[in-house]
Amino acid sequence: MSPAQLDWRLHGVRVLRSGELDTNTPQTPGMNRAAAINFAKAGAQKLWAGTVTIHPDAKTGAHHHGALESVIYVVKGKARMRWGERLEFVAEAGPGDFIFVPPYVPHQEINASSDEPLECVLVRSDQEAVVVNLEVEPVEKPETVFWVDPIHKAP
């Protein structure tokens, strides 16, 4: 159908309420994921978006998401991300911060709090649930990486 032939009432903007999220998604121990925007819930063709709650002190194993790009928006709590061939780099993010994970980057998500859940919104560039688990011997003390550019100076 051409855009002129579409019924925008049925094929336009969708609002999915918090109580309508789909928890029938791939789960990781220590985390709870719920889909909000995908083909089944909203008719999305190219995106997946949802929520993830990471339990206190929980962390994933080392993994990557193939060719997918991921964006994580921290709503509540403190996220710690490790990445690299041996998870040798680390950065933290708090409420209001965005995290971008490029394709094929080995990484690990960690809730940096021992007593608060970490609540995030997750957006991926495809609806395919690609997770490639990696056998990685992490370095003991990762290098902290700061966001430094012409606007954000080194600490």
Structure description:
Helices cover 5% and strands 34% of the residues. The protein has two helices and eleven strands; from the N terminus they run H-E-H-E-E-E-E-E-E-E-E-E-E. Strand 5 (79-83) and strand 6 (89-93) form a beta hairpin. The model has no long low-confidence stretch (mean pLDDT 87). With 155 residues, it is mostly beta strands.
SSE inventory with pairings:
Layout: H1 8-11, E1 31-37, H2 39-42, E2 48-54, E3 63-64, E4 70-76, E5 79-83, E6 89-93, E7 98-101, E8 107-111, E9 118-124, E10 132-133, E11 143-144
Parallel strand pairs: 6-11
Antiparallel strand pairs: 1-2, 2-9, 3-10, 4-7, 4-9, 5-6, 5-8
**Which runs of at least 5 residues are low in confidence (pLDDT < 50)?**
none
Gyration radius, rounded: 17 Å
Helix coverage percent of residues?
A: under 10%
Biggest sheet architecture:
5 strands, antiparallel
End-to-end span in angstroms?
54 Å
Strand order of the largest sheet: 1-2-9-4-7
Task: Please write the string of helix (H) and strand (E) elements.
Answer: HEHEEEEEEEEEE
Number of strands: 11
What structural class is derived from the secondary structure elements?
mainly beta
DSSP strand (E) fraction? 25-35%
**Helix tally?**
2
Shape: globular
Would you tell me the overall average pLDDT?
87
What brief labels describe this structure?
four-stranded mixed beta sheet; 11 strands; mainly beta; 2 helices; five-stranded antiparallel beta sheet; single chain; 155 residues
